[in-house]
Amino acid sequence: MIYALNGWFKSRVLIATLFIMLVPSYSYILYTLYFFPETVVTKDLVYFVLIAAWMASSMIILLNLICELEVNLISLERCINFTEIPNEENYLNYDIHKKNFLYPSKNHIKKIVENNREDVLFPFGHIKIENVSAKYVTKRDPVLKSLNIEVLPGEKIGVVGRTGAGKTSFIKIFWKGLDLSEGRIIIDGRDISRIDLKYLRKEIMVVSQETALFSGTIRENLDP
Fold first, then answer.
1. Nearest to 60 by CA among 16, 90, 99
2. Tell me: the pLDDT tens digits for 79-128?
3. Which of 5, 21, 20 has its CA nearest to residue 64?
4. What DSSP state is assigned to residue 158?
5. What is the reported pTM?
6. Which among 13, 70, 137, 189 is least surrounded, fewest beta carbons within 10 Å?
7. Distance (Å, rounded) from C-alpha 60 to C-alpha 42?
8. In CATH, which of 2.40.40.10, 3.10.50.40, 3.40.50.300, 3.40.50.720 is domain 127-222?
9. How far is residue 10's CA from residue 7's CA, in Å, rounded to a whole number?
10. At what angle do helices 43-83 and 23-35 cross, to 10 degrees?
11. Range(s) for CATH 3.40.50.300 in the chain?
């Protein structure tokens, strides 16, 4: 698609420059030589023709640069919009996370590089869901109603149901993508509502059904 659009763009620019610059310049030369044969072709006239031919390729470069500038400015605009998104409530240590990201210390970088796992929040994975109900802000009725589930460490659980039964919503409550209206979720004896959101999401991996791939390895895509 990119190559096709680029070819379409270049052909249109060349056709435009052909009729706007090249045809008038060559027509002027032929007109001068035909009606005024005694006229000597000067270097200024040659320069004029060469500049007209050069303008065709330069026009493509100029328009490409303008398009690239516009795309980069859109990226900047999106970054600015991201900075204006309000923080989620459970980011308890947001200022610390922001400082570590913008101005990481040597110890913080070393910890990331060595993938230090001494501070694992949920070493076993014992899950208790106690009387959990949840609903979306735009909906009146809860999508999850009074769930009571216990998952032992190492168990593999499959959630089955028709479309709209709440399977995706059930997964969302684990990484706080959907807030609980009542009840609580306890993992390895810790209530996840009292855990910093960044640390919580670092410990729970979710492969979303809305696919989005980033430049990088498969591992980085699964756990960005």
1. 16
2. 999 888 887 878 888 888 888 888 888 887 777 777 655 677 888 889 99
3. 5
4. -
5. 0.57
6. 137
7. 29
8. 3.40.50.300
9. 5
10. 170
11. 127-222
